[in-house]
Amino acid sequence: MTQSFRLENVGLINRNKKLSFKFNGKVYYGYEGDTLASALIANGVHLVGRSFKYHRPRGFFGAGVDEPYAIVQLYRNGETEPNIKATEQELFEGLEATSVNCWPSVNFDIGAINNFLKIFLPAGFYYKTFMWPKSFWFKVYEPFIRKAAGLGVASTKHDKERYEHKYEYCDLLITGSGPSGLASAYAAAKNGARVILAEDKSRFGGTLLTSEVNIGNQSGKEWAESIISELKEMPNVTVKNRSQVFGYYDHNMLVMSERISDHLPKTKKFHPKQRLWYIRAKEVLISSGSIERPIVFGNNDTPGVMLSSAAKEYLKVYGVLVGKNPLIFTNNDSGYETAIEFYKNGINPIILDTRKDPKSEIVDEAKNLGINIKFSYVVVAAQGYKKVKSADIAKISEDKEQLGTIENIKCDCICVSGFWTPTIHLASQSGNKTKFKEDIDAFVPGTSKQNETTLGAANGNYTLEETLKNSFEAGHKLSKEITKNDNKVSFPNVIEKKSTVHDKFWCVPLPKGKNYKRFLDFQNDVAVSDIEIALKEGYRSIEHVKRYTTLGMATDQGKTSNLNGLQLVSKIENKVVPAVGHTTFRPPYTPVSIGAIVGREVGKHSKPTRKSPMHSWHEKNNAVFVDAGVWLRPRYYKQGNESLFEGSKREAKNVRTNVGVCDVTTLGKIDIKGPDAAELLNRVYTNAWLKLPVGKARYGVMLREDGIVMDDGTTTRISENHYHMTTTTAQAANVLSHLEYYLQLVWPELNVNVVSTTEQWAGAAIAGPKSRELLQKLFPKSDVSNEGLPFMGYMEGDLFGVKARIFRISFSGELAYEVNVESDNGYFMWEKIMEIGQEFKIQPYGTEALSTLRIEMGHVAGSELDGRTIPYDNSLEGLLSKKKDFIGKRSLNRKAFTAEDRQKIVGVVPLDKKTSIPEGSHLVKDSNAPLPNPKLGYISASCWSVEYDNPFSLAIVKDGKNMIGKKLFVMSPLKNKVIPVEIVSSHYVDPKGERVRS
Amino acid sequence: MLYIKCPHCGWRSQNEFSYGGDATVKRPKLGKEVTDQEWDDFVYNRKSLRGKHWELWQHLSGCRQWIKVERDTATHEIFKTLKASEEIS
């Protein structure tokens, strides 16, 4: 294909670099610096998709972020991405894209039948149609809607690209590099402020790239280039292109997405694809410009109908003609600028101006050039299906109600200009209450709520001289307040053509007997008739009209449609536009990829992984790991083809018969020091702590103020004013905050300091009948006999030159010890234990065996202390001191907590002694009772008892204390199981606790 | 994301802090007899104000100090921050 719509010697593209690309399987050529849109138009391709609802042919409407139509599926480097605007996607060698919303092809689309059925697809169609019968929803309606909806297909593959997040602080953030952005950035930067200038497009300069103006004896484009190159050299300025500030959040935090690699065939090594910036700015200058708005007329969605400013941009930036026989339809002077550009490049346009007799420099220029101008004329309807072929035009009466005789004139594109809509999204997101500006027929920012200032066209100011002046001043003034500098830059001389007022005309009436679709929202196929229906049906609030008709929804968020929609509602309702109001602007301004939002927090990076100092030993010894909070812990050490069940059973059994060692480094540890440490413990724990001697450990339970158990663990008195507290792995962080809360806010008079030492200590639990013999060999100089180191005793020891803390505490219910050494010595300790333990048949055990051991002993853990249980429920009521007050005590006398039939922990054994009981199952009296079957309790933890070689579970059951010996049923609808069981004591093994004291 | 001035560390982003509820609630003294109503007011009953509100935040990923923050719950405007030891005026 030749680029038959490409001009020679016009545009900012690099003609030395020809690029090939594929669209819908066909190969085309473009140039470096093209967008996919400009390259396709250069090749005469205007049909790029099908519309959402009626599957009408769709072309290009804009040239940038406002594009409602040209959304494609992109293929790049083996990946695919939906929802890409062809007007924003820069061309690269080998780019591939396909149309969306069409099947089997964009040229022959079966869904287009909706276009002929459009009478059946009015506003609220989905709400009205898919309501009944109810049974149709899942089988018929949902699959239909899912197939019909959406703009492209998301990849189900893992995204190999890398995305990053960055946090940045600045004095001034300036969004947009048009005249106001450049002027304010320049003034602020010269005044010493830290400035970030963000431009959405690849080229800086905004409208300066396309407008015929002169600043300081340079063209607008040259001036922009000189300012940008100077800003880039300044150390206090960050200049970013391809960066869209899309959200304005609380306390002047804005979020920007930077597309670093999307314009390249492949992301460079060590580069991210996109980067999300969280920017905290002292001041924000919104210089986001304005978007041209369309005039509504019949079939105004036909490919070839587009914004006049877009036509000018394609011509001046890309050297591309959107048509060779253009019709310009305008209500203001902007359309003339486009017409003049066409004329200068040898194309004869026709201008239809809705105004009767406008007088301005630009109009005069067009007249003098001899351009064919028809005043008081309108386009009634575009003709042509897949591309504009001609236009029905007519004279319009002064009151804009009556159309004259309809004439048909040939044209291949219709460039529309309905004046300009300020881009107020960011200002509105910041909380700024917008106001309606009569003279421009649009909303502009009102009073600022955060530190934000809107400048230039975004503020409804459409003359260059005034824009530059205000922007230089704003940049200087705001930076002066921050930097206290007062360096002023001189204001350049500005030459621009003066324009005159626009005609407040936005919608062409229908000619008699014609029923053309006149679209307001091009992305969602919302026509004038749809809004009329919604209002007829009683929708009044603009927010409701929006949701009922989908006006202004979808990915373009109504950038081109909102104001015309408001005009229509206000006309029908006979209200003024500000009385109708506009819908809320919410971030993001334009779609942001999920990858950018997620950043590096994917897979294993979603949160940091913590490993114990012995981790590499576990890896070498075939440990199968499990996530335990942020930690990775060995679940079991696999031998041969062993399953989890077999392996954990072997390990648990070995603890009961010989000796095992378990890595308990992950337990939370808090170092507590100070003269009031005992008093703190006495208030935090439910039992008494004031008389714990030095060298002794005690088990304690702490409650929340509402009486619910928060955590449990042992605390050891290391010396007079020094305690070592352990918490469960999961609650470690919460317990520390809890202690800090009471020490800082409630009892600041207590002289105590707490600090987390979880990572400072490596811990090994040595458990089993042979643990003492092993310990003696590990610490030959210490007396670890039952008398020397009794149950709940503590001593310090020398582990072959390494200082160790030895605690005689037990979670497994066996004779057991916990040895702690400084983390750096953890690996050494572990190897020594394994080496010397050989003769006692030591085996390491993982969390699964650990659970088995504690469950059959009836020791409670996280699955019982689940934030819903009180001490009584866990048979911990013996630890509640009657003599003292403690956190949460007052709550324990609540009625529900003291009820006679209060739930309590019990043991559960299946009658057949074979069937495993799924955790989370319910306990019921009668398995055949009608639903909902009254639930008596739930299974909190299950294991295979290695002591008795049958399944055993813990359960929390209503009236648990009277349930022992009863026969109930365990029901698991999830696993479709009904198991007859007997309720037994939760202390299934060694109920008197003799082993730990042996 | 809020921007909170920690009285100890200076201006920091919200993601360094964790929220800790109403700062005006006073815990009854230990050992003191309190009625059910008083206890419920301490443990459960909160006003959930729209507007200015004194609340607790902990500078979790910073100095770990609990601080008092006067914030408008509707607009998120922060008027004042205090150390734990400072009384709300």
CATH superfamily of chain B: Folate-binding superfamily
How far apart are the first and last residues' alpha carbons of chain B, in Å?
A: 27 Å
Number of strands of chain B: 6
Q: What CATH architecture of the domain at 163-290 and 422-495 in chain A would you give?
A: 3-Layer(bba) Sandwich
Q: Assign the CATH class of the domain at 163-290 and 422-495 in chain A.
A: Alpha Beta
CATH topology of the domain at 163-290 and 422-495 in chain A: FAD/NAD(P)-binding domain
**How many beta strands in the DSSP annotation of chain A?**
50
Number of alpha- plus pi-helical segments of chain A = 23
Point out poorly predicted stretches of chain A: none
Folded structure, characterized:
The complex is a heterodimer of chains A (998) and B (89). With 998 residues, chain A is of the alpha+beta class. In chain A, the strands form 13 sheets. In chain A, strands 8, 9, 12, 13, 14, 15 and 28 form a seven-stranded mixed beta sheet that branches. Chain A has a six-stranded mixed beta sheet with strand order 41-42-43-40-34-44. In chain A, strand 5 and strand 6 (79-85) form a beta hairpin. Chain A is elongated and about 115 Å long. The mean pLDDT of chain A is 94. With 89 residues, chain B is mainly β. In chain B, the strands form two sheets. Chain B has a four-stranded antiparallel beta sheet, with no helix packed on it. The interface between A and B is medium-sized, with 25 and 26 residues.
Labels describing this entry:
heterodimer, A: 998 residues, alpha+beta, Ubiquitin-like (UB roll), FAD/NAD(P)-binding domain, seven-stranded mixed sheet, six-stranded mixed sheet, B: 89 residues, mainly beta, Folate-binding fold, four-stranded antiparallel sheet, two-stranded antiparallel ribbon, 1 helix, 6 strands, globular
Q: What is the compact description of this entry?
A:
By secondary structure, chain A is an alpha+beta fold. Chain A is elongated and about 115 Å long. Chain B is mainly beta and 89 residues long.
